[in-house]
Amino acid sequence: RRGEMAKLTQLIDNDVFRAYATYTAIVLLKMMLMSLITAYYRITRKAFANPEDTASFGKGESAKKYLRTDADVERVRRGHLNDLENIVPFLGIGLLYALSGPELSTALLHFRIFAGARIAHTFAYLIPLPQPGRGLSWAVGYAVTISMAYRVLSSVLYL
Amino acid sequence: RRGEMAKLTQLIDNDVFRAYATYTAIVLLKMMLMSLITAYYRITRKAFANPEDTASFGKGESAKKYLRTDADVERVRRGHLNDLENIVPFLGIGLLYALSGPELSTALLHFRIFAGARIAHTFAYLIPLPQPGRGLSWAVGYAVTISMAYRVLSSVLYL
Amino acid sequence: RRGEMAKLTQLIDNDVFRAYATYTAIVLLKMMLMSLITAYYRITRKAFANPEDTASFGKGESAKKYLRTDADVERVRRGHLNDLENIVPFLGIGLLYALSGPELSTALLHFRIFAGARIAHTFAYLIPLPQPGRGLSWAVGYAVTISMAYRVLSSVLYL
Question: According to the UniProt entry, where is the signal peptide (chains A, B, C) (predicted)?
Fold first, then answer.
């Protein structure tokens, strides 16, 4: 048992893997924050998707009017889905990249730019900033993931 | 080759990692079940999203009327998306947590509560149960993931 | 430091893990491609979701008419969401499967069929092919993931 734990500790003690763990936790927590922002807008805008969510506003027609879409709620939901579409590839490709033995400084550059780009994307979406603010922040995160995928495929390719 | 396999086996033989693997497989299979439930409702409610899916009901107007949304289908789809939004963070943060060397009993507590909360969330969504049933089951899974993220960041932080 | 790197290299040098890394990178890149296809259709069909995206078409009513849904855009988006629903389970269950020590030939069979099925699914969705083309390609990828989950649970189960 002590031997096994030692091996696991070696993985988590590797600096590149620690950096991956840190930035992955950060972007996943940022993505999770979108759920709270959606809930906040649903409650303040009184715009719900499920009849059982409006039961506290009374019965029948008086509650039914809150079963509706709201522009602010939909905006947060689009941001949340965009997170899923971009952070899932980072989660998988970033892990493989971290295990492919990159230089620590190069790895940190990738992780930091990705996390910064996704945080900027969220602000650009929610404020909202005029384009190309959101588009650029999306593209930067996308390019970082492609760069890591290139490194993974060129170092481990086994078809 | 034998040496490499031995090293991999050490990872999968670690009890915390085995528990992570077990509960991750369970919640991912549960999430996959949502696809089958969606298909079941689409077929029984005759509510499809793609014209090619309704071709077996005839041509032209007779088939077109099945290109529609249905309350039951949409309910399952919302549950499926909520799974993605919550199980993806568990997948990533849970892996890092399992590698951070927690006590087995603490890790099992986290994994069991998370899996239980997500299963409860599905029942609450599909039956549906009155609120705050669904809200509470969502919040419990969310809190477990935050707790694991806190442990990951406090033990490996490398910015 | 050299010792740690050697350990990480052992993971990434394992043939089954290299195959997992290769096919995971491929299906994640394929999923990322859906973002570009969505952007292509949004621009060529002039169908956007956010007011700030239509600002370059002028102000007021002249730009507002481009805030609309388009059948081609929605089709790509459904394909993208289906990727998320199916590639996320592959990402997690495939990793655990690769660590469970399967035969290389068996693992390659799983990974190759999954990747082929998801690429076929995308073509079936976007062309679109008549059913059951899309349904079958979806079911093949789903069955491969179930097969890997069965192997994971039967080899590591720790409840």
Answer: none
Q: Is C43 on the interface with A (CB under 8 A)?
A: no
Q: What is the pLDDT of residues A24-63, one digit of tens each?
A: 999 999 999 999 999 999 999 999 999 999 988 877 777 8
Residue A29, domain member (yes or no)? yes
Number of structural domains (chain C) is: 1
CB B118 within 8 A of CB B30: yes
Inter-chain CB proximity A17 and C9 less than 8 Å: no
- The answer to whether A157 contacts C22, with C-beta atoms less than 8 Å apart, is yes
Asked if residue B9 is part of any domain, the answer here is no
CA atoms of B149 and C80, how far apart (whole Å): 28
* A31, two tokens: 């993505």
B-chain CB neighbours of A35 within 8 Å are 85-86, 142
Residue with tokens 């033990």: B155
Asked whether B5 and B54 are in contact (CB, 8 A), the reply is no
**Which residue range(s) make up the domain with B58?**
16-156
Q: Do C131 and B4 count as a contact with CB atoms less than 8 A apart?
A: no
The CATH number of the domain holding residue A72 is 1.20.120.550
Instruction: Report yes or no: A36 at the C interface, CB cutoff 8 Å.
Output: no
Q: What is the DSSP letter of A68?
A: S
Residues of C in contact with A159 (CB under 8 A): 19, 22
What are A118-142's pLDDT values in tens digits? Answer: 999 999 999 999 999 999 999 999 9
Q: How far is CA C81 from CA A26, A85, B29, C72, in A?
A: 23, 8, 17, 14
CB proximity A92 to C under 8 Å: yes
Q: Is residue C142 part of a domain?
A: yes
**Which DSSP string do the residues of B103-128 spell out, in sequence order?**
-HHHHHHHHHHHHHHHHHHHHHHHTT
pLDDT classification of B128: cutoffs 50, 70, 90? very high
C121 at B interface, C-beta within 8 A: no
Contact C35 A85 (CB under 8 A): yes
Q: Which residues pair with C48 in a beta bridge?
A: C67
Neighbours of C56 (CB within 10 A): 11
Q: In this predicted structure, what is the pLDDT of residue A1?
A: 40
Candidates A12, A35, A91; nearest CB to B156:
A12
Report H helices in B14-70. Answer: 15-44, 61-64
Identify the H or E element spanning B13.
helix B2-13
Does B71 map to a domain? yes
The pLDDT value recorded for residue C59 is 74
pLDDT band for C9, please (50, 70, 90 cuts).
Answer: low
Place C56 in a pLDDT band, splitting at 50, 70 and 90.
confident
Q: Is C88 on the interface with B (CB under 8 A)?
A: yes
Phi, psi at residue A132, to the nearest 5°? Answer: -90, 30
